[in-house]
User: Fold this.
Amino acid sequence: MEKSEKRNGDEVKLIPIKTKVISPGEDLVDLIPLESLRDGDILVISSKAVSTSRKRLVYLSNVKPSERAKSLAKKFEMDEKLVEIILREADLIIGGVKGVLLTLKDGNLMPNAGVDRSNCPKGTVVLLPENPWEESKRISEEIMKRCGKRIGVVISDSRVQPLRLGTVGIALGGYGIPLVTDERGKEDLFGRELEITFRAVGDQIASAALLLMGENGEGIPMVVIRGVPLDGESNEIKPELSPKKCLIMGSILKRFPKLLEESQ
Assistant:
């Protein structure tokens, strides 16, 4: 199956890579059909696939919940052991709703610090990759070593957005392509100069790949995206923002200035 979309005369193709169930410790590059890759392709890899290959799994039977975990679990109607793992992984617990905690993790606002029970072996939870930036670089360089192809790599996850139902893709890390581009100073269709616009290219690519990856048992942990019109190979712009610079969190903090201080 191959999906394509035309943009400004160019054709962008999304090519799914369906694999067997990935085993802990398995080398992901071994599962990629290297002969089908082309220079300039972008390989999007699910964060769960990366975490599983790196044995970032926790067996719930080995977890002893703390008193804080028990308290939060009771308040938000969650499993005590799951909450304990979230506490270990999160940089900050902001709050939550029934069944989910809102957390800050590695500069990202996310549910449950990225700890997830889906698409991992029974009795375990999967954590986020420890360093998605280094992982994406390692995978790109290993592909170059094996087949001589220059490939951009994005490690993706899914997220919810404020006041929107459903998930979209997010780039946790990447290599070989810009994950954010600065559009300030460029002109729109009517000649107006853009003043504040940045493009979240990595998140857009991750969302496109998520159309094929899905969220259930599709068995597509990787998607090749071909023909994306990008200027430049990479840059130093990182997608994370401090809470005070974020439109949403910054606005909330102005209304409730002690929110982060009072968070659990």
Summary: The longest strand covers residues 152-160. The first helix runs from residue 47 to 53. The chain is about 25% helix and 25% strand.
